[in-house]
From TrEMBL:
Residue ranges the record marks as coiled coil: none
UniProt cross-references to InterPro entries, sorted A to Z: CO_DH_gsu, START-like_dom_sf
Protein name: Carbon monoxide dehydrogenase subunit G (CoxG)
SUPFAM superfamilies, per database record: Bet v1-like
UniProt xrefs under CDD domains: CoxG (cd05018)
Length: 152
């Protein structure tokens, strides 16, 4: 499954990049996130509860960031285990393009799922993934925009 999109955030590139690396910001924006622990600048551990169709699962997983192209680009890879519900793994490439006082955030994400979740059908999985991604980026833009107006 692949997801691609872009969003304009009303904050400069350095502020957007910093927010994408802030566990507190990410925790409030990730749908269903119960816990997000930063083990290092490049390693995070997450606990997320998601409902996909009739299946509700608590995922525990790890995310590794590759910041070698920062602050213009970075990528992340992760995998999570939802017990009997199944497992997921994937990654995303993110680019941040400065445009005056705003930043264009583009992402391309890929994911693979297995177990009970994979039996739900690709259409349901794809639409749920799109909704979750849209919810994350809408929340993220709101938090960063709010933060920018507080600091202004």
């Amino acid at each position: 499954m692949e997801l691609n999109d872009e969003i304009v955030i009303n904050a400069p590139q350095d502020r957007v990049y910093a927010a994408l690396n802030d566990p507190e910001v990410l925790k409030q924006c990730i749908p269903g996130c119960e816990e997000l622990i930063k083990h290092s600048d490049t390693e995070l551990e997450a606990k997320v509860v998601l409902k996909i169709g009739p299946v509700k699962a608590r995922f525990s997983g790890n995310v590794v960031l590759d910041q070698s192209g920062a602050p213009d680009t970075f990528s992340l890879t992760g995998q999570g285990n939802g017990g009997a519900a199944g497992h997921a793994k994937g990654g995303a490439d993110v680019s941040l393009i400065a445009d005056g006082d705003t930043t264009v955030l583009r992402y391309a994400a890929k994911a693979e799922i297995g177990g009970k979740l994979a039996q739900l059908g690709s259409r349901l999985i794809q639409s749920t993934a799109k909704k979750l991604a849209a919810k994350f980026f809408k929340s993220f833009a709101e938090v960063v925009n709010e933060d920018a107006s507080v600091q202004a």
